[in-house]
Each structure stands twice: as structure tokens, then as C-alpha cells.
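Sample intake sheet
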Amino acid sequence: MTGYDMKKGISLRVSHFWDLSYEQIKIRSRTRLKKGGLIVKKVVIETRDPNRKVYSITETGLEKLRRWLNKSARKESHKYEVLVKLFFGNQTSQTQRCNFYTRIIRLNSGIYSHYHWIVPT
């Protein structure tokens, strides 16, 4: 997958809870992963478009990912502005609350559809 594919995949699947900029993926993360032997780069020659750099995870990378997945997660602190606004929503008019709820529902309507594959049917 290309760097663009990585960013697109992250945006679709995990950006709701893990925020990464394209620069983090392009520069910091890929460089560190390549140096660690966790991914490899292959240049695909294109005839009409610029050549593409395609990245694949190595067996070492898969092993390291699996070890990380089995580790305990560290305690994290989160600040969810939307939850604070919901909590104090009674300080606004009913119309303002309804408009706010409608915006939140509209903005988040697609989030859960990306996770249908987690729970087998």
C-alpha cells in the first residue's frame, strides 16, 4: 500500500480514536518502521503516472504488532468536548440542544459502519 493508501485506511478505520497526520505517516512512522525492518518499500514503475512507492509489512513487523497487541494498554486521559457540551446542554435552549444533537449525529453517522467486521455475524 502506498503512503496515501495508509492515510486513507487510517482515516476510514481508526481516525475516530487514533489521530495521525499525513506527515506522521509519511515521514516519522514510515521512516522508523523501515529502519526497524518492520516494513519494506517496493517501487512500482508506472508508464503514465509517477512511480508509486508501495509498502508491505514484514514478518518481523507482524510479530512486533502481535506482541504490542498482547501488552496491557497504558492509562490514557481523554477530553471529549462533545460530552462536556452534552452534559451541560441543559444550559441552552431546547432548539439549540436539538440543533447540536442533530449536528453530532450527522457528523458521526458513518463511524460505526466502519466496524461491522469486528463482531462476526
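Comment: The chain has a mean pLDDT of 83. Residues 3-70 form a domain with the Arc Repressor Mutant, subunit A fold (CATH 1.10.10.10).
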